[in-house]
Each structure stands twice: as structure tokens, then as C-alpha cells.
Amino acid sequence: MPTYRMVYGDGEQVVRETLTDVELEREDGWTVVFRGDDAILRLQDQHIQSIELVEAPPA
Questions:
Q1: Could you count the other beta carbons within 10 Å of the beta carbon of residue 43?
Q2: Alpha-carbon distance 33 to 20, whole Å?
Q3: CA distance 58 to 43
Q4: Which residues make Cβ contacts (< 8 Å) with residue 36, sequence separation at least 6?
Q5: From CA 9, how far away is CA 37, in angstroms rounded?
Q6: What is the mean pLDDT of each run of 10 residues along the chain (59 residues)?
Q7: What pTM does this model have?
Q8: Whole domain around residue 39: which residue ranges?
């Protein structure tokens, strides 16, 4: 499972987080982060400042 580094929020409330062993799904202006079958984070795309793939799963 991949690892992502994400920065999200707005104004003075900005979160920098590394999310390991997750999958991202993007649809209709939303990004949802899943770990297994559980959605662990759901954000409107307008609040995401950056998403960086840190480590891809082995091929």
C-alpha cells in the first residue's frame, strides 16, 4: 500500500500529515483516504494544499 504526504486546511489551521498504507479515491470535488475498507479521512479538494506520493507499493 502506498504512503502519501499531505498538507490540508486553510487559514491558520493547516495540517501536515504522512498517511501510510492507504488508498486515495477522488470524486466530485472530494478526496477520501481509505485504510482497508475504512474511510479514515474525507476532504474537499479545495482544502488540500498538496498531496505527494512518498512510497509506492512494490510492483
A1: 17
A2: 10
A3: 27
A4: none
A5: 25
A6: 94 94 96 97 96 84
A7: 0.86
A8: 3-55
Instruction: Give whole-number Cα distances, 36 to 2, 19, 20, 49, in Å.
Output: 12, 13, 11, 25
Q: Which long-range contacts (CB under 8 A, 24 or more apart) does 46-49 make?
A: 47/8, 47/9, 47/10, 48/6, 48/7, 48/8, 49/7, 49/8, 49/9, 49/14
What are the cell numbers at 33? 483516504
Q: Which pLDDT score, from 0 to 100, does residue 56 have?
A: 79
Number of domains into which the chain is organized: 1
11: left (phi over 0), alpha (psi -120 to 50) or beta: left
- Tell me the CA distances in angstroms from 50 to 9, 36, 53, one per residue in order: 10, 23, 10
pLDDT the model gives residue 16? 96
